[in-house]
Amino acid sequence: MYPTPLKAVVRNLTENVVIASTPFTRAGIINFGARMSLFHYNGEVIVWSAIPYGDEVVRSLKLLTGREKDFNVTYLIIPDAEHTMAAKSFKEQYPNLKIIGMDAAANAVPVPIDYPITSKYANKLIDSGVLKEVGIQDESILSNFEFVYLPSHRNKELVLFDKNSKILFEADLLLCLGPKGTKLEQYSPELGFPDNFNPHGGTSFLAGFTHPDSGFFKGLVNRLVKSKDLEVRKGLQTIYNWDFTKMVPCHGNVINEGKPYFKKFFDFVN
To answer: What's the chain's average pLDDT?
Structure first.
């Protein structure tokens, strides 16, 4: 559930990448936060994990492109079966927008997926060759992104690697909300929260366990993705093989030491 009015912390990660971080509550009771990422390549805007279209999205597009209007938003990437609720609002604004997502999420998405990623590509590197096989011909996608699809995950995760920034983007595979007492960008004073706001208070206390030093949460993450399966482990190893630095989750803070954080959860990767 997004608050009304929706506010976001909007900032550049690189010259070509802008993130918009917002409050969001899971089931209306747990402070999860949410994050949209925008990419600007070849004059095109690619949206990762959309938030509802509105003033904060427009502000993000202005920062990304340096334009005041006429944003060339060409693709929206749905990262998993839970991150679908804002797709319709973007499609209404940009009718020619093409949507990339996993076929397993088709029933959850209120608009058609133009380029479905199927289980044929499970746990493998989805590079430009595979993307062409899926039907994508646009160099703004082919030259800049690679993916790994983890259909074993409860939410059917599609993980993205931006080759230019060397940043990994993921939705629900890993969270970064804890440990308890961690200050979260998605609940910061810039969004109207007091400086001493505790995002892990009350019914949100469970969010304070979402870190790799929590044995409970580490075990839960591995169960959700079914990491005991050897094929799944190949997929997780493929993700780890990317030369990424930062990791940008949809829920919680950006992780500057992304690769060590990933390995803490999946200690079998090397």
So the answer is: 96
Q: Residue 267: which residues within 8 A CB-CB, separation 6 or more?
A: none
User: All domains of the chain, ordered by start, with CATH?
Assistant: 9-265 (3.60.15.10)
With a CB cutoff of 8 Å and minimum separation 6, the contacts of 147 are: 117, 126, 131, 158, 159, 160, 161
Asked whether the predicted pLDDT for residue 24 surpasses 90, the reply is: yes
CA distance 31 to 206: 9
**Could you give the 3-state DSSP secondary structure of residue 146?**
strand
Q: How far does CA 126 lie from the centroid of its chain? A: 17
Q: What is the pLDDT of residues 197-211, one digit of tens each?
A: 999 999 999 999 999
Query: Other CB atoms closer than 10 Å to residue 133's CB: what's the count?
Result: 11
CA dihedral 79, 167, 10, 75 (to 10 degrees): -40
Q: Starting at the earlier edge strand, list the strands of the sheet with 44-48.
A: 9-14, 17-22, 34-41, 44-48, 73-77, 98-102, 115-117
- pTM listed for this prediction: 0.96
Alpha helices in the chain, H assignment, sequence order:
55-65, 87-93, 128-134, 139-142, 215-225, 230-241, 258-265
User: Are the C-beta atoms of residues 42 and 23 closer than 8 Å to each other?
Assistant: no
| Ramachandran angles phi, psi of 148, nearest 5° | -135, 130
pLDDT (mean) for 49-60: 97
- Is it true that the peptide bond before 95 is cis, omega within 30 degrees of 0? no
Cβ neighbour number for residue 156 with a 10 Å cutoff? 25
